[in-house]
Amino acid sequence: QFIGASLMCSPPSSEDSTAAASETTALLKKPSSAKQYTVGEMLSTSAYWLLVVNFFCNTQAVFFGASLSKTIAAHIIPGSATDATLTHIAAISSLFNACGRLVWGIL
């Protein structure tokens, strides 16, 4: 995520975004102009392997956070944090995660 954040830049000006939008519309109307890769060609591209590494690293971070969320919260919330309370917090955060995924999928 740090690498992705460091690659962020300012959005293009309105003239550039209008030109990019018309290019995107033209590409969507002509799907035959896009290169279709075979499996072998796909496996030889750096973009594919970058995507695989990105998914792997993201999955590791999510699994780490999900599996240790109750343990970390038990140390952060002193005293009255029972196991049931921590489970409710984890369940509610999972619901917000699911809703966020739906919203970003729609956008």
Would you give an account of this structure?
This protein is mainly alpha-helical and 107 residues long. 76% of the residues lie in helices and 0% in strands. The chain is built from five helices and no strands. Helix 4 runs antiparallel to helix 5 (83-106). The protein is elongated and about 60 Å long. It starts with a helix and ends with a helix. The mean pLDDT is 78.
Short structural description:
This protein has 107 residues and is mainly α.
The Rg value, from CA coordinates, equals: 21 Å
Strand % is under 5%
Average per-residue pLDDT, rounded, comes to 78
The biggest beta sheet, please?
none
Please trace the helix and strand order, writing H or E for each element.
HHHHH
Ends distance: 21 Å
Low-confidence stretches: none
Helix content range of the residues, please? over 70%
Record field, number of beta strands: 0
CA-based shape = elongated
Task: Provide a count of the helices.
Answer: 5
Task: Report the structural category.
Answer: mainly alpha
Structure characteristics:
mainly alpha; single chain; 107 residues
Give me the secondary-structure topology.
Layout: H1 2-6, H2 14-29, H3 39-43, H4 46-76, H5 83-106
